[in-house]
Predict the 3D structure of the following.
Amino acid sequence: MAKNLGRCLALAAAFSSVAAPVFAQEAGLQPLQAAFAGAKLPFQAFTPHSLLTPEQQDALSQAEKILRQQPALPAPNDAVLKWLSQRVPGLDVKNIKEINFETGVMVMAKASAAKATWMDVLSDAAFRGQTIYYVSQDVLNQLDAKYYAGLIPVRGSTEDGQTFQMQAFLAGQGKVHLLFNFTDFTYKDEGKRFKVDNGGRVTATIRGPGDVGVEGFSTYGAPVFCPWAHIQRMTKESMYKVHVFTNCGDRSGNDLHPVRAR
């Protein structure tokens, strides 16, 4: 979930604390090397669950059970379903269920207790099934106030001084969507620049446990040669490290922080 579920039920994102190390911001040779030399780094794909302790695996299993054992989860109202279908083309609205704050807290508490990361949670089997879980803006803000998840911030200030807000979180059928109130905006986080585009929708496609494809999210790269590096994929390479792939190259050893209570 997120400075999210939303930073998420843990979306979204996704990605600030992970993507920030990909490229240096300063002009000159260093960012250029980071952008293009990274493509030559050897990469070994790991099976993420083999990197989890038994306690962490159990916590994620319990998180899945929390969601699957909620037969009373309601569908969003018709107005929300119509809005979601407009924001996400081809969305399977008949299988959407809404998660309330109490259920979200149970999931986040399990992840936090196990020191699991947002990548472990968001790529969990619960979000690869037929049900699509929806978290509203109000619940995202409440969860964000209680937990740090490490995704794109749920809310913040754009570089031109406006307030951006994550309006919805959708996860299911192998995809996670983070929907924002602007179709295109840039912001800074810990001194790094990021951009959300794609109509204000960041999408993570679950390729497997701890492995997601990314669309709609970029980090500032090498001036002139790669001003914006589009993040395309992120794959765990150890419990708290992630390999980040972009259109300008790839780089290993990026920090991945666990979900934690604020």
